[in-house]
Amino acid sequence: MNDHDSPISIHGGGTLAKAIVSQENDHWSVPDGSILASWARRMVAFVIDVTIVYSVLNLSTGGMIANALNVGLWASSDFHYSVAFAAILLASHWLYWRVTGLAFSRSLGQKLLGIAIVKDNGDAVTSEMWDKRAVGKLLYLIPVLNLYFGIYELARISQRHTHQSNLDLRVGTIVAHSASLPPGSRRHIR
Q1: Which terminal Cβ of the chain has fewer Cβ within 10 Å, N or C?
Q2: What 3-state DSSP class applies to 108?
Q3: Where exactly are the structural domains of the chain?
């Protein structure tokens, strides 16, 4: 038996199926045993996050944050008020996703649904990566553009075996059920 090569060769560990998919589709490997989050769970977590941030802004501005989405105000000569509120809305969401990502390795909506963000190899996401993720998610808040990008990204998540959006691929992250991650990948998740 030792005098010939095995017909099966796996480099880097893992299962044969994982090695084949990884080589054929040029996708990153996923930590063993991880259950990847579905597009539906990710979308519900996003809606929860936007609701949390918008509610806090609504309370703190006395309802004036709604001017960020006031089409009549955008079309008037006082459009600069809408621009200011839109900037506050976007900056608040960016800050929310960045801070909760650094503190918990996920947003509060993702925490409620039991999902977490890790690097494609299972390590903790870096500060720079959280910045890129937070900026990328702002596209989903811009009216009309959010419909196009949202539908496109949901389609990409459901088509890929790694359930990664284009944003996940650019940043190098995966979204998985936090309890399914290997213990070494869970130590930074709160």
Answers
A1: N
A2: helix
A3: 34-186
